Amino acid sequence: MLRELTQNRIQKIWVPTKDDKRRGTGAPHFANPPTVIVMVGLPARGKTYISKKLTRYLNWIGIPTKVFNVGEYRREAVKNYSSYDFFKPDNESAVKTRKQCALAALRDVKSYLKDEGGQVAVFDATNTTRDRRDLILKFGDENDFKIFFIESVCEDPSVIASNIMEVKVSCPDYKDCNKTEAMMDFQKRIDCYRISYQPLDLDQYDRAHSFIKVIDVGSRFLVNRIQDHIQSKIVYYLMNIHVQPRTIYLCRHGESTDNLEGRLGGDSGLSQRGRQFSRALARFVEEQHLKDLKVWTSQLCRSIQTAEHLGVPYEQWKALNEIDAGVCEEMTYDEVKEKFPEEFALRDEDKYYYRYPAGESYQDLVQRVEPVIMELERQKNVLVVCHQAVMRCLLAYFLDKSAEEMPYLKCPLHTVLKLTPVAYGCKVESISLNVEAVNTHRDRPEEVKRGPGTLIRRNSVTPLTSPESHIKKPRIEGLEEAPIQELPNSVAHCTSSHIPLALTGQVPELICSHRPHPEPFRAS
């Protein structure tokens, strides 16, 4: 018997009236089984970089994702790291400890995907042996999880050395050592893993499994047996990212005449101060001395007028147009409150999921600007001249902000945000061009309380601690081994460094395979 449907007031979508716990929330509806992404590769090959960046992207597009880094489990079990001896394959006690840590992480993966609403778990470890990967495949079969492998392969000595120096020597294992000692120890750790390393085998052992090989930090790819939409999204994303140094500048258009009147949306031109900002922006861009800077705008008048003053070619993106306010377009907030009081209150209740009648929500906007994010990841230096809601969506991606935070990010007029990607995140600098403008930011009303039924899309940082909000329970319990001895006191303290990885400027080559093709499809 068909259930009766009711239209959700916030999202304007139809949901079953009864027997549906998710009614009235923005909870995503997933039909496919959860996915476990399994990282594979020797140490210092960028696995954690890929894990963190991919998790940030998947959460941003609305797929609840969490990283489980087995190294963190090992550091919790073994309080004091001694040396690379811990990673020797003939160190039976350490091998047992490392396996227990992996099993503990898999236990938490299961809990996250079955009990905590997760849809994708990233199992971040070396997983260099077939025995370990077979164990994970069996774990997936037992729990009805899809398994997707991402293997990072790199033998470029300069890239490996850069990764070790810029990320690994500043990790907790080497908190009390100098960089030279840490570098030597980590190189020997890699040699320990290399002894038993068994890469994914497309032609024989692993031909039935789903995976992508990322070769030489994205210069080439090998793809095998993509099963579903999520795996397809992962492959597409990984083929677009790079780690070359670059800068992204985000700013809104200059102040418009509609801004002066406090009106939503519309397609008005610039005010006098808006034109003044456009000239100031042109001077700012010239002072940056950026090589091959690309400029993107929306297709709205105020954004194009702002770019015209730059005196350089620019590209118009319809995807960068401001959020569509539907029947509320060109109204002031007071007019919306008077004419549509219920809609006004509903938007305050859940601004991310709220959809304007005949218009858009922030959730819709994220889907619309996703191609912009993909292209930004491919580019080097870019200036994006856009609008308040669009800028919030872009900023939330780069700064890993949650759905609850996104609609309230402050993006003032006549201010440029300079984004510089770094090893595991993004550095942001706010630069005011000293041209006055109206304040269009509206804070969340204090009296509005989030209802218990509303699902907040987590960012990729929050889920790591969300199950342990008050008391942090140990991940590892009952280990028989005694803690590893501390490093000698004579070893000096080392400082941390967070610089983007080096990357050779090669054109990516794609190698795809989907059996039953007898040989991989090759393209360049």
Spans where pLDDT lies below 50 across 5 or more residues = 19-25, 451-473, 480-524
Counting H and I runs of at least 4 residues, what is the number of helices? 14
Helical percentage: 25-40%
Instruction: Specify the biggest β-sheet.
Output: 8 strands, mixed
- Sheet with most strands: strand arrangement: 4-5-3-6-7-8-15-16
Oligomeric state, counting identical vs distinct chains? single chain
Average residue pLDDT:
86
Cα shape:
globular
Task: Label the structural class.
Answer: alpha/beta
Radius of gyration: 25 Å
Span from first to last CA? 53 Å
Q: What percent strand?
A: 15-25%
Topology order in helix (H) and strand (E) letters: EEEHEHHEHEHHEEHEHHEHEHHHEHEEEE
- The number of strands is 16
Question: Can you summarize this structure?
Answer:
This protein has 524 residues and is an alpha/beta fold.
Description:
By secondary structure, this protein is α/β, with parallel strands linked by helices. Helix content is 33%, strand content 15%. It contains 14 helices and 16 strands. It has helices at 47-60, 70-77, 92-115, 130-143, 157-166, 179-196, 229-238, 257-261, 272-288, 301-308, 333-339, 341-349, 362-378, 388-399; strands spanning 5-7, 14-16, 35-40, 65-69, 120-124, 146-153, 210-215, 220-224, 248-252, 294-297, 315-316, 382-386, 415-422, 425-432, 509-513, 521-523. The strands form 3 sheets. An 8-stranded mixed beta sheet has the order 4-5-3-6-7-8-15-16, sandwiched between helices. Strands 11-10-12-9-13-14 form a 6-stranded mixed beta sheet, sandwiched between helices. A hairpin with a 4-residue loop joins strand 7 (210-215) and strand 8.
